[in-house]
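Appendix C: a fully annotated inverse folding record. The material below is reproduced so that readers can follow the format used throughout the book. The structure is listed first as tokens, followed by the designed sequence.
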């Protein structure tokens, strides 16, 4: 393993021997061959526009590889890091390098961007339009907090449960099976790297991607938390995409069943990098 965040397969060993050992115990079928009665998935994209502070920060990172807000600054060095920081800005977050004089285990600190949050506003509009049990997937923990706060303010604290790394496995199971699946809580907010595999969330009729990870498998598996045995209705999947931004490039890569790191590498080779980070 290697590549971005050490999660990319960069080589294989002893494949023929391994396949020979495993093959007597494996029978593989496609999901579509087994779940013939499962209602279809429905997809929709909702474009939103930057607020003024977001636009300024985004343009600065996209064009100069550096952003400043107040007395704090951030410099990015690689294409993938730039895409990551731009994606954070699309969600309403900016990451700054910490003052080296401050004692802290983290090199960075995360701040919410001042002004309205267009994605939060669009999400709340969607929840009014579709009054059904809803999963909201976010890539970043600070996004989970922002989304949960907005939903709790609008619908009540008991209507929102969370699943992410800092939530214990016992609490995750309780939040999903006892609260969300039994429709005691209308909203489940989490990240796909923690809750996107294994769990049954068929109570959901709506899945909103506030932001996507760079990993295609995480996207594919997270979709199937709601679209699996036990689901009797079509599930609507809505992606919130900041217009003319990196959000579109990330979604395009995932739609093409690629990890974003692979998509970026292809773009670098074809010299289309700037298309990945189109500025507003």
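Designed amino acids, in order:
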């Amino acid at each position: 393993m290697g590549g971005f965040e050490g999660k990319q397969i960069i080589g294989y060993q002893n494949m023929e021997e391994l396949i020979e050992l495993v093959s007597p115990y494996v029978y593989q079928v496609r999901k579509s061959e087994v779940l013939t009665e499962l209602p279809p998935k429905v997809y929709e994209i909702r474009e939103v526009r930057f607020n003024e502070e977001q636009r300024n920060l985004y343009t600065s990172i996209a064009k100069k590889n550096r952003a400043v807000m107040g007395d704090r600054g951030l410099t990015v060095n690689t294409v993938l890091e730039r895409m990551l920081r731009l994606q954070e800005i699309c969600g309403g977050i900016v990451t700054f390098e910490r003052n080296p004089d401050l004692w802290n285990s983290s090199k960075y600190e995360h701040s919410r961007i001042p002004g309205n949050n267009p994605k939060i506003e669009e999400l709340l509009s969607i929840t009014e339009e579709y009054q059904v049990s809803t999963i909201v997937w976010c890539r970043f923990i600070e996004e989970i907090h922002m989304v949960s706060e907005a939903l709790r303010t609008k619908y009540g604290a008991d209507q929102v449960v969370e699943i992410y790394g800092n939530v214990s496995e016992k609490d995750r199971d309780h939040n999903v099976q006892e609260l969300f699946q039994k429709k005691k809580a209308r909203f489940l907010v989490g990240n796909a790297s923690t809750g996107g595999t294994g769990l049954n969330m068929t109570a959901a009729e709506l899945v909103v991607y506030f932001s996507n990870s760079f990993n295609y498998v995480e996207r594919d598996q997270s979709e199937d938390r709601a679209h699996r045995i036990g689901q009797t209705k079509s599930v609507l999947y809505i992606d919130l995409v900041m217009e003319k931004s990196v959000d579109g490039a990330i979604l395009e890569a995932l739609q093409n069943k690629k990890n974003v790191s692979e998509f970026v590498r292809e773009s670098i080779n074809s010299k289309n990098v700037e298309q990945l980070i189109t500025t507003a």
